Inverse folding.
């Protein structure tokens, strides 16, 4: 009797995927908050915030989600993840946060993304 079993992720891989998802969620929230606060409210600020949130979530769902709509190779997925992190770092810097925190967020997010993509292969 043969069984086709899919390999179950180990606990450390699942933890890395969870942390990676949290970093991506924080990036989307940072971009959205920046979109709301960068322009005067109500007219351009609300439209910009909602538009940037929709764009960030759309790109995440298309390329970075656990079940992406469009399957791309790992280099393209890494590029989209780095672009999302760079946009979040830029948004956090633009909000006036001291530069060390966005830099640490960007480096930590890139390292977590690299480690989790290496473990997923």
């Amino acid at each position: 009797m043969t069984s086709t079993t899919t390999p179950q992720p180990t606990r450390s891989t699942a933890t890395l995927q969870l942390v990676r998802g949290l970093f991506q969620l924080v990036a989307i929230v940072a971009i959205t908050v920046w979109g709301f606060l960068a322009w005067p409210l109500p007219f351009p600020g609300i439209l910009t915030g909602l538009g940037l949130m929709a764009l960030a979530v759309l790109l995440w769902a298309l390329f970075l989600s656990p079940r992406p709509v469009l399957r791309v190779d790992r280099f393209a997925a890494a590029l989209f993840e780095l672009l999302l992190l760079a946009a979040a770092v830029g948004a956090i810097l633009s909000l006036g946060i001291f530069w060390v925190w966005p830099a640490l967020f960007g480096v930590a997010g890139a390292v977590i993304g690299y480690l989790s993509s290496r473990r997923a292969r």
Summary: The chain is about 75% helix and 0% strand. Helices lie at 11-37, 43-64, 74-94, 100-120. Residues 11-37 form the longest helix (27 residues).
